[in-house]
Fold:
Amino acid sequence: MNKKVVVGMSGGVDSSVCAYLLKKAGYDVIGVTMRLWQEDDAVAARSGHVACCGSDASDDAARVASILGIPFHVINFMPQFREKVVNYFIASYKNGCTPNPCIACNRYLKWEAMYERAKQFGADYIATGHYARIKQGTNMRYYIQNAKSAAKDQTYVLYNLTQEHLKHTLMSVGDYEKDEIRMIAEEIGLPVFDKKDSQDICFIPDGDYGAFLRRECKNDLPPEGNFILANGRVVGRHKGITNYTIGQRKGLGIALGHPVFVTAIRPDTNEVVLGENEDCFADCLIASDVNMVAEEQFDPDKIYRGRIRYADCGADCHVQMIDESTIKVTFEHPVRAITPGQAVVLYDGDILAGGGTIQ
Structure:
């Protein structure tokens, strides 16, 4: 293999320093910014949102590439982003699920699409500024290890990468703390050294998912329906299942004299089930579309640490393979708000073993 690498540059400090570190290590670096979404500048300005794929991002990335003395390209992946990320996001909410678009974007855009383009540049590797580390185990499988910085670790959103992806990926910032990355950027004169981090949902700059769905879907959203209790009793009307997620308490628009929480969403009957906080806890889940990373299959006798959302620190659990793409995860103690559409990601120590989509 040669040492040519395409670095996905978001215009932020992490990907900028990633490019610098790889060039310093002797790689032939090419910078690429992916145009994924046409951001509403007025909404973005009001929200103070920092996007990873807008015009400001490509301008900042171009300036960094010029300082580093590397070639730079802006590539339009907007149709692929619409198909693989935005359409999936909308369909998930319509089906009563809560999607994680960053996981889909990483798999299909920042890896599959970028790797195919990298091969056209004659590169054997792609690289990003994610806080994670890639290693190869004694079983010859490539795996993802937690970043040095626990606070910035991004392994959760990378569980869906394939062995082919990992074999051709370099991650140079996973061995650093965030303040070390900013210090490197300032020392070498990069103007983005103090730039704010981008936010997760780049195509919803104000964070208002409901408004985004209404704009995109017009009149093609699930209608109003019933709030019910677990026993089937109707206690009110909801504004459409796309406005709710498991464990939600605020913004329900219903008063029952005590706090209530969303415990289930039933798209088939267009119902939202309400209950007490303790009703939000469960000790097992089923996940599909499983992707194995460090292992070929889960060991039913091993204790894993399962994370059911990005900000989750994880809980001890056992994993049973139902079939090659479906698992049952049983937690040693009940966990709160297991949410269909989110990912369950399983760790063996600080190594990402695999994960799947919660059903």
User: Anything to note?
Assistant: The first helix runs from residue 13 to 24. The chain is about 25% helix and 30% strand. The mean pLDDT is 93. The radius of gyration is 21 Å.
